[in-house]
Amino acid sequence: MNQSKRHRYRIHFTKGDTLRFIGHLDLYRTWERTLRRARIPLTYSQGFNPRPKMNQSPALPLGCTSECEAVDIWLEQELHPERILEDLRQVTPQGLQIQSVKQVDLRAPSLQSQVIAVEYVVFFDPSTPLDDLQSSVQNVVEEKNILRKRRGREYDLRPLIEHLEIDHGEPEKPILRMILSARQGATGRPEEVIASLGLDPTFASIHRTRLILDTE
User: Fold this and answer.
1) Is residue 22 over pLDDT 50?
2) Where are the domains of the chain?
3) CA distances from 74 to 4, 78, 82, 146, 216 (A)
4) N or C: which end of the chain has fewer CB within 10 A?
5) Are 3-108 and 114-213 the same fold in CATH?
């Protein structure tokens, strides 16, 4: 299909508790089914097994929720973003909430390549004592290197942590905020940061709050 006849849109959405154990590939399939049910005129690839042209934001770690996910879709015909928004909201599954739809320049880089960092908030259950958490955060911030293993390979987590702080909103329930690198080949994982604090990630609720683009 002629490139000039394609139209690109970006859908911003949230991923709630009911979908937090749905992986990146399964989320892609969920979007594919949802867009078909909404009868959105997707552009498909050529070849033996045509696939809809879509591009998701960087993968959300399994078990996490998010208020800032995005997916780019390419359509065969131009539609008003409000019409796409209305049609999608009628068929989205529980756990997905559409926030907005906007048209995007076809020439813009891929969504994943534009994201350079992501922000998370972490809630602990049972709540970790504030003094202990402050001490652990300070130790991590002051470290020059934090060596961890991922898939059998050792890597340095410290340069992937761009910001780490405690939200003192409720002293009895401190919240950990972090900004992690999300560049290709240099992506920080929140559960690894939690483990580096000497805490068990299985007792933490991790929520993604912001995608930081290179345009920012």
Assistant:
1) yes
2) 3-108, 114-213
3) 11, 10, 16, 41, 24
4) C
5) yes
CB 83 within 8 A of CB 38: no
Residue 134 tokens read as 């402050």
Task: Compute φ and ψ for 195, nearest 5 degrees.
Answer: -65, -35
Element containing residue 135 per DSSP (H, E) = helix 130-142
The pLDDT tens digits of the residues spanning 84-117 come to 999 999 999 999 999 999 999 999 999 999 999 9
Q: Name the architecture of domain 3-108.
A: 2-Layer Sandwich (3.30)
Rounded to whole angstroms, the Cα distance separating 6 from 23 reads 28
Contact (CB, 8 A) for 209 and 122: no
Beta-bridge mates of residue 182: 187
For residue range 184-212, list pLDDT tens digits in order: 889 999 999 999 999 999 999 999 999 99
Region of 63 (left: φ > 0; alpha: ψ -120 to 50; beta: rest) is: left
Sign of CA dihedral 165, 16, 69, 20: positive
Q: Which fold has domain 114-213?
A: Alpha-Beta Plaits (3.30.70)
DSSP, collapsed to helix, strand or coil, labels residue 102 as: strand
What's the mean pLDDT when you consider all of the chain? 92
Tokens 């042209």 correspond to 53
- Output the 3-class SS for 188-208: CCHHHHHHHCCCCHHHEEEEE
